[in-house]
Amino acid sequence: MCGFSGLASASVRALVDFTAAPAYSVPSTDAGIPGVSGLLLEGPQGWGEFSPRGDADAAAAVVAAIEPGTVGWPDPVRGWAPVALTIPVGAAQRAAGRIADSGCRTVRLPVTGRAELAAAESAAIRSVRAALGADGGLRLVLAADSADPGPGLAALTESAGGVEFIELGHGSAHRAVELRRSTGAPIAAHLTGAEWAELARSLDVVVLSVAALGGARRCLRIAEQIGKPVVVASAGESSIGLSAGLALAGALPELPYACALGDLGWLAGDLVESARQLRPRAGRLPVAPMPPAPDPAMLERFAITDATELARWRERLRRVS
């Protein structure tokens, strides 16, 4: 739980409204990309998004959600951040349109490396590479629960005509070493929990998510301790949550890779007015001093109305606040 449980002190409770937090669920438009559900927390300086994918991530996520409305984000050193798109294998034929619309020059492609999916994944890689061109950045992404891909991943890496790195949703130091040996590609992985230091030492690139690690300020401190190239990512959030990732991207001294923050377009909508939605233009997104406020009409449209689901989210928040 990252040592975060119980961090909502009496003073924080006086500033942040935990009991009346709006609950929402925005579906995805593609089976290969998850939707986003959660609660919005309002503090005196603005709003934060609490949308952990599971209970294990909830303690860090609530700290990250409280941060923008209370202590705020670190000061930025840049006003814009380059971003990457995720293109699911099943949507690879639409890659050219997505890339053209967003202007993004980097694509994340989730793969398994399994023999039974090799033909479909190889075809998807060819489609994405053709859409990007030889100078575009391509990353192969292995899901957190993916089994050992064996030699199939090495074949996919070769067919991609070069990859920036292979990205692990979660990983171990041993797995990172083995994948680097078998593929010859740089290895990146998402840091989570309290045991991030050992994993970070085994990686070529470190993936930081504000919600998974307890806020932009804590991510910035971790990046300083690691001393390795960093890429900023999101597990999938509305524009309110994405803005926290952009705050981190804006504060990092160096930003060598496009941030995995360009996937809002896969959602059926957003929680903020259209002018504030974080959809990539010219391959980048703006860094702002605070998150956009929710649009009441969008909150009503995507409000969780199922009593059981609503109670589940309220209880998840209660346990970590």
Automatic annotation (TrEMBL):
Q: What is this protein called?
A: O-succinylbenzoate synthase
Q: Where is the Enolase C-terminal domain?
A: 92-274
Q: Which domain of life is it from?
A: Bacteria
Task: Identify the Pfam families for this entry.
Answer: MR_MLE_C (PF13378)
Question: Signal peptide: which range, if any?
Answer: none
